[in-house]
Design a protein that fits this description.
It is a single chain. By secondary structure, this protein is an alpha/beta fold. The chain has a single domain, classed as Rossmann fold, CATH 3.40.50. Helices cover 26% and strands 19% of the residues. The N and C termini lie far apart (47 Å).
Length: 138
Amino acid sequence: MRPLEGLRVVDLTRVLSGPYCTMQLERPRRRGDQVEQPGKGDDTRAFAPPYQGDEAAYFLSVNRNKKSVTLDMKSEAGKEVLGRLIDVSDVLVENFRPGAMDRLGFGLLRCTRAPRWSTARSRIWRHGTAERPARLRA
């Protein structure tokens, strides 16, 4: 068996760093489930032009080989489905604001109960320029 072969990933990421990370994890021989917002989908669906058909080329490039699922993670039914996805997966990758997963009920303590669990977080806290550096709040 090759490294990472058979890996199953739950992808809760949006915009650049997260989708790129999960794209690398989900190369052929791995399975990925990308969770998107109902009625809107992933923000990068609108990052265009260029388009490939009616989809943004950027969205298609970082979400290839992924199975997309629409899920309202704030509803009880959505939380139940997400819990089942986490329980049968090896890796959860998210890039929400700090504390968002806890508020949804899927913080560290809940996720570590999953039998094959691992997690990755993708965060950029603040950024700035040489002329105007970022100011961090305490």
